[in-house]
Amino acid sequence: MLADILQLLVAGLATGAIYALVAIGFTLLWQTSQTINFAQGEFVMLPAFFVLIGMSYFGLSFWPAVALGTVVSIITLGFLFKRLMVDPMIRHGVLPLVIATIGLAILMKEAVREFYGADAQPFPPLAAVTNVSVFGAAIDVQSLVVIAISIAAVVALQLFLNGTRTGRCMQATAQNPTVARLLGIPVERMILYTFLINAALVTLASILITPIYLAKFTNGEWLGLYAFIAAIVGGFNQIRGAIVGGLLLGVIDNFAAAYLSSQYRMALPLLILIVVILFRPQGLLGRVEERTI
Amino acid sequence: MRGLGFVLALSVPMLLSGAAGAADVKIAYVGEISGSGAVSGGNFRDGAILAVEEINAKGGILKDKIALTNYDTQTNPGVARSQMQKAIDGDPYVLLGPIFSGNVKVTNQLVKDAEIPQFIGGEAAELITMGNPYMFRTSFGQQIGMPKIANYIRDEIKAKTIALIWVNNDFGKGGRDRLMKEMAARNIKIVADVSTESGQADFAADVVKLKSANADAIFVYSNEEECARIMREARKQGLKGPFVGDTTLLSQKTIELAGDAANGVIGHVGLTADAPIPEVADFTAKFQKRFNYKPDHNGIKGYTAVYAVKYVTEKKVGKFDRKAFAKAMHGLTITPKDEPGILIETGWDDVGEIDRISFLAEVVNGQQKIAKTLPKLGK
Description:
The structure holds two protein chains of two kinds.
Chain A: H1 2-33, H2 40-56, H3 62-90, H4 94-116, E1 131-134, E2 137-140, H5 141-163, H6 165-175, H7 177-182, H8 187-213, H9 219-234, H10 239-259, H11 267-279
Antiparallel strand pairs in A: 1-2
Chain B: H1 2-19, E1 25-31, H2 38-57, E2 66-72, H3 77-89, E3 94-96, H4 101-114, E4 118-120, E5 135-137, H5 142-157, E6 161-167, H6 170-185, E7 189-196, H7 204-213, E8 217-221, H8 224-236, E9 243-245, H9 252-258, E10 266-269, H10 278-291, H11 297-317, H12 322-329, E11 333-334, E12 346-348, E13 354-355, E14 358-364, E15 367-374
Parallel strand pairs in B: 1-2, 1-3, 3-4, 4-5, 6-7, 6-8, 8-9, 9-10
Antiparallel strand pairs in B: 10-14, 11-12, 12-13, 14-15
C-alpha cells in the first residue's frame, strides 16, 4: 500500500511539474502583457515535432535536434507569436486576442496533422527506462529526471527574476508598466523577454512529457486545459501559485484515477476549478488585484 | 442565342468526357483517418489504396477502373454517421470500413437500408449479429479470437489469475466481456479489471493498480497507441508481466511506439505482416515501398477487402450487382490460388463472419515472431 502511494505520488509530481512549467508560462504572459494564450497546449505539442523534424529530415542526432528545436521554438513561439499575433491584437482588448489564440491552436494542430500525420510518433527518452527501489516502490528514473529538471528550471527562473537587473525590470514591468516606463525601463523589451521565456518553458515541457505520452498532434488539447486550470487554481498572478496548482493537479489526478474512478479523472480538475472559483477566486496562493512575477 | 448554342454544343462532349469517370466502379472508404483511431484507419486506407492501384494498373474490375473515395470519421461516432451518409449518397458499389466497432455500430442502419456490401474492420463480437446481410468482416470477431487466447493463457502460461486492462469503447468493452466469460469457463480468476479511456495518455495510476493485483499474467486490450503507452508505463514501473493480448498489442505500430517496452509481449494475432507466408511477405514489401512504413493487420485488412471485391465481382457475379455480390459472399472461400491478392485462404460464413488461420506470436527484439500457426476454425 505504501509502495503504491509512493509510486502514485512520484508519478503525480512528475506530471504536475510539467503542468506547472506550462502554467508558469500562462502566468508570465498574463502578468506582463495581459495575454491569455489558449494555444499554450499546442505550444507544448509543437517543439517535440521540431525535434523530430530535426532528426528525421535533417538527420541530426537527438541532442543537436533538441538544440535546433529549442531555437526554432523560441523564435516561432516566442518572438514571432508576439510580433505577428499579440502586438496587433492586444490593442483591441483581451477577448479578441483570446479568440485569436484559440484559432492559432486549431491552425497549429491541423498543420502538424497535415505535415506529420495523425499517428502518434515515438520520442526518445531523456533517461534510461529503469527504476530504483524506494521503500519497496519501484520509482522510475524518468519521472525523477522530469521532477529534477522542472525544479532546476523553476529555481533558475526565480534566480533570474529576483537576482538580475533584467529580472527586476521584468517584475517592475509586471507591477506597473507606466511607472516602469517613466523609470527608463524598456517595457517592450521586457515583455518580449517574457514571451521568449514562455517559449523556452513550453519547449522544456514538451521535451520532458513527449517521451512518456508520445508525439501526437492532439497532445496540446488536454495539456493546455490542465495547465490553465492549474494556473487558476494556484493563482493566476503568482508564479508560486502556478507551481502549486500544477503539482496539486498532477497528484490529485493520479490518486483519483487509482482510488476513485478512471472514467471521472478528467472531470476532477474541473470540479476543483469550480470549488476554487467559488470559494477563493484569486486562487490558492494568488492575491486579489495584485500583479507580480 | 447562337453563341449560347455554340457553348452548349461545346459543353456536351466535355460533359460526356467527364461522365466517363462515372463509369468507374466506386468504392468508398469510411474510416478513422484522424483522431485516436488514425493508426488503424490509416493502415486500412493505405492497404486499400495499394490494392486499388494494383488492380487499376491491370485494367480494373470487369475492365472498369476503381475510383476510391476516402471519408474521415475522425474517430467520432457523430462524424462517422454523417460521413457514411455522404459516402452512401455517392452511390458506391462497395463500402470499406469503419474500423472502430463503435463507428460500425452507429452507421449500421444506414448501410443496411442502403443495401450496399460493406467490409468492416471492427472486431466487437456483436457487430455481425446486428442483422445486416451486407456486412462482412475483414478480421476475426472477438468471439473467435478470445477463446484462442484463453486457451493459450490456460495451457501455455498456466495462469490462475489475470489482471485485465482495457479501453472503454465498443471494441474494448466487447473484448473485456468476452474474455471475462472465457476466463470464467476455465476457472481463471480476474483479480484486476482496469478500465481506461480511448486516447488516454497517462497510465501511471492504472499500472499501479495492475501491479498491486499481483496477477500471474496481465491482459492488455486496447488500441495500438494506448497499448504502446501502457507497455511503456508498465516497463517504467518495473511491472514484469507476462503481458498477453490480441492483435493490437502485438501490432507493428504498437511495437514501433513502445520500443523495447514491447519485448516479451505474447498473444494471438489474427493477421500480421510478419506471417510466415510468401504472399504476405510480398504484400508487406510492396506496402513498405509504397508508403514508407511497415503495415499492421489493418493494412492487410484493407488490401484483402479490395481484392475480395474484385474476385467476387469477376468470378462469382460477373457484373456489378450489390445484392448478388452479398449473396455470393455468404459461404464463400477464396484461396490465394483463386486470387493472389487475398494473401491467405479466407472464408465467410452465412452471417459474414470470417474464418482463416491465425497465429500465436511473441515480440522479440522489437520484431513480431510467429510461434505457432493456428488452423481455421472450419478445419
